[in-house]
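Hi R.,

Here's the input for the glycine complex you asked about:
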Amino acid sequence: MTFSRRDFVKTSVLGAVAAGVGAQAQDKGKDTSEEAQSGSRKRPIIVCANNGFNYLDDGFAFLKSGGDTLDAALRVVKGPEDDPNDDSVGLGGLPNEEGVVELDACCMHGPTRRAGSVGGVRNIKNVSLAAKAVMTHTGHVMLVGEGAERFAVAMGHPRENLLTEHSRKIWLLWKEFHSTDDWWGPGLADPHWQAPAAKPGDGKPQSELHPEIGREHIQNLQARAADLGIEPEHQLAAVRTVLFPPTGTIHCSALNEKGEISGCTTTSGLAFKLPGRCGDSPIIGAGCYTDQDVGSAGATGSGEENIKVAGAHTIIENMRHGMSPQEAGIDALKRIVRNYNGDMNKLRFLDMTYYILRKDGAYAGVSLWEGYSKGHPHKIAIHDGNRRAEVCVNLLKGYSQEFPPFPEIPEELKNSSEYMK
Ligand code: GLY
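And here is the predicted structure with glycine in place:
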């Protein structure tokens, strides 16, 4: 008897949601004390999305030597922004549907209770620093588009082409081969949205489609990737990006010995988005929120969903009212589940990870799903004198598939290291 992931999700996950208990804590019989759910309590401490792991040493040394908490967090996120090989933020970020890189960022400085944000910025690599400049050099909180770009240039940021050859080729692959199920038309939240498998002329649930359909599609894409000059070792990863446009992002929060706390989030947003689309990352209260009295939180994942639950702000308010960091994050995730009435056929196309740091140094990483694929769990990176990455506590068992949906990926490809590069 085969037991699909969807069946498993239906039968086991909603029970965990209904019971109001985080899946990992419940299933593994773990110690659910607040301490165990929220990490150790040390100060100073920095937490961030796992793509900031390599930059934590520098940020932590700066923080420990008395550096400002926001500047410490910005040092961490600047690493991936500058890295042309990180296609989720800054230079080399995956572009919009027209092949233009558009970046979003925001920051909050706890000690002075200030905020800055930029959205839809082109040609400026370090948008996290531009967001800080909005905070420190203007009477505004948010600048977008061309005005934000001109402001960044006035602040000394150079204009540069952010589209690397690698990202351009992946975009071209998408452009030439993307599905007719693209970002135009009704989204998941629309009452008339239908899963592709339910469309007329199809009839079968996606899980019952012949796996060869997926294999053929992937093989075509891989051949085209080769034609476009994508190196063999990067071809399957490019195919994955085209099949499941990612929402890569980095968030970082930093807390010093005095209890001062700040946070920032930066992203190239959803790959192949409509020009002008802003996700949650530049939205104060969604992609990042810091309250000097409580803590700091930020997000990576499906920006549209996070905006609708004001995720980072919800988490801070939950902690203000007594929840542990883990409980606060799981509650925000449950609001996303609630927005779809627990419909796993829709939720499996979404994902969300929250990085949460309370003012006393307790922290948590929580995610909607275990990860995008088996063996690649969502992680939170931490530095409190000991740099490490920890697997997030997931609300739902299983792995997300990002929107727009495509035929099932054969298991052996899904789990290959090349596909997940
Ligand atoms: N969370 C990043 C985005 O959706 O743009």
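One thing worth noting: The chain is about 35% helix and 20% strand.

Cheers,
M.
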